Amino acid sequence: MSTNPPLLEIKNLNVSYHTRKGDVPAVIDFNLTLNAGESVGLVGESGCGKSTVSLALMRYMGNNGSISGGQVFFMGRDMATFSNEELRALRGSKIAMIYQEPFAALNPCMTIGKQLLEVPLTHEDISESEAKARTLQLLDDVRLPDPQRIIESYPHQLSGGQQQRVVIAMALLSNPKLLLLDEPTTALDVTVEAAIVNIVRDISKKYGTAMIYVSHNMGLILKTCERVAVMYSGQVIEEGKVQDIFVNSRHPYTRGLFRCIPNITADKNSRPLSPIRGQLPLATNRPKGCYFGPRCDFFEEEKCGKDLIPISVADSNGQRVRCTRWQEIDWDNYHPEVNQREKAAIGETLVQVRDVKKTYELPSESPLGLFGGGKREVKAVQDLSFEAKRKEIVAIVGESGCGKSTFAKVLMGLEGGSGGSIVMGNEDLAVLPVGDRTSETIAAVQMIFQNPNDTLNPTHSVGAQIARSIRKLGAASGEDVERKVDSLLDLVKLPRSYKNYKPSQLSGGQKQRIGIARAFAGRANLIVADEPVSALDVSVQAAVIDLLLDIQAKNDTTLLFISHDLSLVRYLADRIIVMYLGRIMEQGQTKDIFAPPYHPYTEALLSAVPIADHRIEKEEIILEGELPSAINPPPGCPFSSRCPRKIEGVCDKELPPKRVFPDGHEIYCHIEEQELKKMQPVFRMIEKVQTTA
Amino acid sequence: MKYLLKLIFSIRESRVGMIGLAICLFWVLVAIFADVLAPFDPLAIVAPMASPGFSSEQGILWLGGDFLGRDIMSRIIHGARTVLLWAPVATACAYAIGIMLGLTAGYYGGFVDEVLSFFANMVLAFPVLVLLILIISILGASPLSIVVAVTFASSPAVFRLVRGEVLSIRSRDFIAAAKTRGENIFYILFIEILPNAKAPLIVDACLRMGYTTIFIGILGFLGLGFPPPTPDWGGMINENRAIALVAPHMTIFPCLAVSSLVLGLNLLADGISEVSKKI
Q1: A240 vs A315: CA distance, rounded Å
Q2: In b/e form, how buried is each residue of B138-163, taking b as 16+ CB within 10 angstroms?
């Protein structure tokens, strides 16, 4: 150890927010020491205080937040002694911050170049040409092609991934000592995320910048950080070296969190998720003693339910844990109850989808557009064909803009299709809007929506909304409705008293449960679930998924699961369809999708998924370039503009042929079958795990 | 309805809202109990040109008498009844029409929206006063024509507000959910969409009631309002305008009445918009 003070030292930091209901502690007893060049991850679910910590470091908490205790030393000096002027000089020069929404971080009416130059010109005494040279260098470092062009553009002319790279370059411009990253990739697609994460890691090595990486995603922390602190309800409950936490986590919450994360190498039958019971306590209503107590299987009133739990050092590696019983728990003999599932027998074909197309017309940008001439088309979905069997779970995966949600709208009749057929029973749903469907068909096809805050009408009570669905879907009438509402609430494991609640009184997970209850109110044969859990925290996500699978199995329903999350899809789907820019790239049984031969896009997608498992090593395939616009897709294979295995002169000219493999596995690619079969698996299990001990 | 009660109950958390509510309640009570409160018959000639505080044989004229000798205070009190009856009626009519058309335009969009918005913009582009005078000159001065005129002039603004709200609500998932369970258009418009726009609509209704009060005042002032001798604030200002320099109390008190009511409504609207974000 050197005699220099650490770069950042946080001692017993407490942060509170003032509300009408009094002071609410948001961060309690937070300690952290960070040396130059080190990277620490802060991980936890929403509301755990991880973002508040990073804001408190910058002393930037708005009107109602304040540091109510503890000290923060930056480069040996107590930050409370900095004047506002000094703090302002510090922000952006010594400490830089990168936020979740890149678009909100850039000024939309200034060119990128002007905004970037501002940083060194404000903080340092350098000439404009020097500043410009450094800016260009950094834009090159974040791997933006053609920095000169980027400098001259405005934020809206760049894609989300490019914007975030600009924000990173901006943060690094005056060579900060400490970089705070608050969910920097959450708003981005996985393939873009993978590229950004690599840049962040390389840059911090190159410039020796210390990092605090705030994220809800364990996989990203594993990829980027050396140490990690796990937070729960305002407290750090465990911290240590990343490897140690992954191999040998000691706190029941950390363990529970890992059991909630679907693993990309396992499915629902071989490794069922085990959700943490209960829900996150509200900051205004934390339990006595251990905050995790009410959800913990090892809770003992005597030891855990009395006083605040101090954090204690667990071993010589600096792993610390906030649990009174960590030495007593025998993890090897702990097997929480999980919902063991048998592979369901799949029935006959329920829906047959043939060449479904959906095209949107946009007015032309040219003056002719005024007169209705020169219309442009967005081909949102093209030639989508697949079939779904009874009791089967079919997943459609792809990044934003791939057409998966558009297809759901066509299937539900919210938008009319532009061609093709969706045959279910003896009706063709493709061009039949919902208003023209028979009430039987409407009851047979129902949907679960993505956004928990949007899925329920905020003005009506939960019970009234379920009751309305029951009546409209013809499941019950008269006095039976009330009984059916109760049974549906039982089905989704919510107390019956919730029917009098307004949606605003429920948490996100509870709202999604009501959404599920509503979809199953009739006798639905086919449920379309459009990203039903993507807005939820992992521990809640696991419980909702578990519930959805149970109800689906019980009712013999076919589930069309739309998602961008490959781990989740691997976990629950029987069959997977991979889409890119409106077209199917690959489809087949889940096990076939996750093993070679792959479509090159699937391969890249798999390699981009952050995996919260230290035992898995994966091939690194970073896609260059940006997602092309659907108005002007590349001719030939839509993926040809980014494909690392592109065959020049073929892929960008002609549509790829269908290559058929056993078990209905189909890949649309120009690469010969023999070549595809030679691909290496993306994931490898590492046999031995080395801990730092 | 429950929402409205909750709103009024929680208005105590906003100071401006409380002041506004107090002023409005004051005028409402004055209007309701006009017969009891007014010391004189508003049409009776008591003391011509009396100054404020003048004691006549029948009693004291606290705010003086007008050019004919009618008690100004009694006329203001009874005038409150006129304005507080017709301003809400006219506003409600403007709302009924604005909501119907706004829901239709916002929900259907496209051609329907373009046609309706075109007409709304055309009315809005017209100077309001000219429009009001025009309509009343055609229909003749009567309470009914005031309602028609105000409805015609105000409903386009309501239309635009409702349309904007519908545009943002109709793309939300719960509307898609309603469609996928086969709800008809009326259910979606009136049960799913409209209740979610209530907060801005209630705030706007308060403000619009203030505008209507001003409109009625202006019409009265122009001699296009309620036919004399109806006690009407705008009309009172007009009647006594000629001698305003000699006897300012005859015009000032009716003016104060109009502005205090409008101020009250505006403060109430501010208060409601403040608390509606919290509940």
Answers
A1: 10
A2: eeebebebbbbbbbbbbbbbbbbbbb
Compute the distance between CA of residue A231 and CA of residue A681 in angstroms, rounded to an integer: 35
Among A455, A459, A516, most B C-beta atoms within 10 A, so best to mutate, is: A459
User: Does pLDDT of A636 surpass 70?
Assistant: yes
How does residue A348 score in pLDDT terms, banded at 50, 70 and 90? Answer: confident
Strands of A65-74's sheet, edge to edge? A22-34, A8-19, A65-74, A77-78
Partners of residue A517 in chain B, C-beta under 8 Å:
none
Position B117: which residue type? S
pLDDT at position B159 is 95
Can you tell me the mean pLDDT for A99-113?
86
Global pTM? 0.84
State the distance between the two ends of chain A, measured CA to CA, in whole angstroms.
19
Q: Which two tokens stand for residue A612?
A: 């919260």
Question: Model confidence over A198-241: pLDDT tens digits?
Answer: 888 887 788 888 889 888 888 888 888 888 999 888 888 888 88
Tokens representing residue A191 in the block: 């393939």
Measured between alpha carbons, how far is residue A6 from residues A90, A177, A538, B35 in Å? 17, 11, 34, 82
Q: What are phi and psi of A320, to 5 degrees?
A: -125, 150
Can you list the alpha helix ranges (DSSP code H) found in A293-389?
A: 301-304
Residue B30 host element (H or E): helix B15-32
**What is the ipTM score, two decimals?**
0.82
Q: Quote the CA–CA distance of B86 and B88 in Å, as a whole number.
A: 6
Q: Which residues of chain B neighbour A466 with C-beta distances below 8 Å? A: none
Residues 6+ apart with CB under 8 A from A688: none
- Tell me which H or E stretch contains A361: strand A349-362
Task: Mutation target for A interface from B7, B108, B179, B181: give the one with most A CBs within 10 A.
Answer: B181
